[in-house]
Amino acid sequence: MAPSSEISDAYRPILRAALSVADPEQAVRNVLSRRGRILRAGDAGYDLDRYRTVRILAAGKAALPMARAVLDILEDSITGGLVVVPHGSDRSLKKIPVLSAGHPVPDRHGMKAAEQWLKEAAAAASEDLVIVLLSGGVSAFLPAPAQKMSLAEKQKVTQWLIKSGARIDEVNVVRKHLSRIKGGRLAAAIHPAESLTLVLSDVLSGDLSTIASGPTFPDRSTFEEAADILKRYRIWTHIPAAARGVISQGCRGRIPETPKPGSPVFEMTRHLIVSDNRKSVEAAEKQAQSLGFNSLVLTTSLEGEAREIAKVFGAMAREIHRTGRPVARPACILAGGELTVTVRGKGRGGRAQEFVLATAEQISGVPNATVVGFGTDGKDGPTEAAGAAADGTTFDRSRNHGMDPIKALADNDSFPVLRKLGDLILTGPTGTNVNDLYLLLLP
Q: What is the domain range of residue 78?
């Protein structure tokens, strides 16, 4: 996990602690248990003798370990289902087929998986139980474009939204209204069967209607809101005409809205969040304190443009160095969330890497200051890095290597700079996803 540069590696056990508490298999076991023929999920009980079939529908970056936990707990009670994981992931699972799909841009494999999900859901009857397992990436893994839309057109909408700098909740409002699964439509397909949804949350608010675009949860957003988001980010005229057509028809009431609160399709649904960013940040803080740091958690809902948030972290580093406020050295500032990058250049990087390189400029000259940006899923943007670490010497070191970090930031090209310096954090897929962790360490 450590960069190969001379940057302090004090952050390593802190990140490990954050990942440990987000372990998907253990998180499921913490809320799901069985005694005899009774399945307990939180404070709810399910008599397994009541059901003709029990199916698992799992999708996301943590789908496989979550499904393994449920299979281990329920053993021979599971009668079928489908698991969808990212390309390149382990696909070994007994009893239930596993398919892979693309992320963050949907692909034809995900489209095939989505159709099979819908078939499994529609096959459930009133005497059946469907256990839905959701984790980060579901919105991309299961593209089921609205009628008259192709996968290529859905992909273009996603690409424009990602480049625009739209927040993930705004992206999901649009996705819901261009999908046959999201925004409660999976619950409609499962109805009248009973469903239990377990969620490893990658959404800062914990809003179940936003997590994975809320396939089994009531959707309060509307076609009108989807249109407003696309227009506000000035991409309405850039997205395919078919997508504009679906949203325009929905605004006129010619396409049914997503299922809303009070709809009968939600009468037999339950939801539990098994882990989230808050729990990871709390574990990271506890580890930092055990290492002797004075800690301060800024927020577990960090949002905003990566380079703007970098200025805040830089200002805090300088203030701690000069005055010992708001916490004295040795200090550890922590935040959880997910930043955005408005892509204007043609370079390579991710939100965590851009944040780190931008903060490196801000902390130049601050002795022994280290900044870390880390994606808990092990993948930051379209790169193989999970994030990066930098210190007050990063800018000088990059220039000594013949690079221009200011130009790199202007071109959204943080990855090559940090790679050449050996400052990337490389973990590979972690099997979980509870947003990002941002650290500022002043030992």
A: 24-276
Domain co-membership, 328 together with 392 = yes
**Position with higher pLDDT, 246 vs 208:** 246
User: What's the CA gap between 222 and 184, in Å, rounded?
Assistant: 12
pLDDT in tens, 313-322: 999 999 999 9
Instruction: Calculate mean pLDDT across residues 108-113.
Output: 93
Q: State the CATH number of the domain containing residue 366.
A: 3.40.1480.10
Domain boundary at 248, 276, 304, which? 276
pLDDT digits (tens, 9 = 90+) for 117-160: 999 999 999 999 999 999 988 888 899 999 889 999 988 998 89
- Of 107, 113, 83, the closest CA to residue 95 belongs to 83
State whether 232 and 139 are in the same domain. Answer: yes
Q: Does residue 423 contact residue 388 with C-beta atoms inside 8 Å?
A: yes
Residues forming a β-bridge with 82 = 57
Give me the residues paired with residue 129 across strands. 54, 194
Q: pLDDT confidence of 105, banded at 50, 70, 90?
A: confident
Other beta carbons within 10 Å of 242:
20
State the pLDDT at residue 7.
Answer: 65
Q: What is the 3-state secondary structure (H, E, C) of the chain?
A: CCCCCCCCCCHHHHHHHHHHHCCHHHHHHHHEEEECCEEEECCEEEEHHHCCCEEEEEECCCHHHHHHHHHHHHHHHCCEEEEEEECCCCCCCCCCCEEEECCCCCCHHHHHHHHHHHHHHHHCCCCCEEEEEECCCHHHHCCCECCCCCHHHHHHHHHHHHHHCCCHHHHHHHHHCCECCCCCHHHHHHCCCEEEEEEECCCCCCCCCCHHHCCCCCCCCCHHHHHHHHHHCCCCCCCCHHHHHHHHHHHCCCCCCCCCCCCHHHCCEEEEEEECHHHHHHHHHHHHHHCCCEEEEEEEEECCEHHHHHHHHHHHHHHHHHHCCCCCCCEEEEEEECCECCCCCCCCCCHHHHHHHHHHHHCCCCCCCEEEEEECCCCCCCCCCCEEEEECCHHHHHHHCCCCHHHHHHCCCHHHHHHHHCCEECCCCCCCCCCEEEEEEEC
304 pLDDT tier (thresholds 50, 70, 90) = very high
Q: How confident is the model at residue 386 (pLDDT cuts 50, 70, 90)?
A: very high
Residue 53: CATH number of its domain: 3.40.50.10180
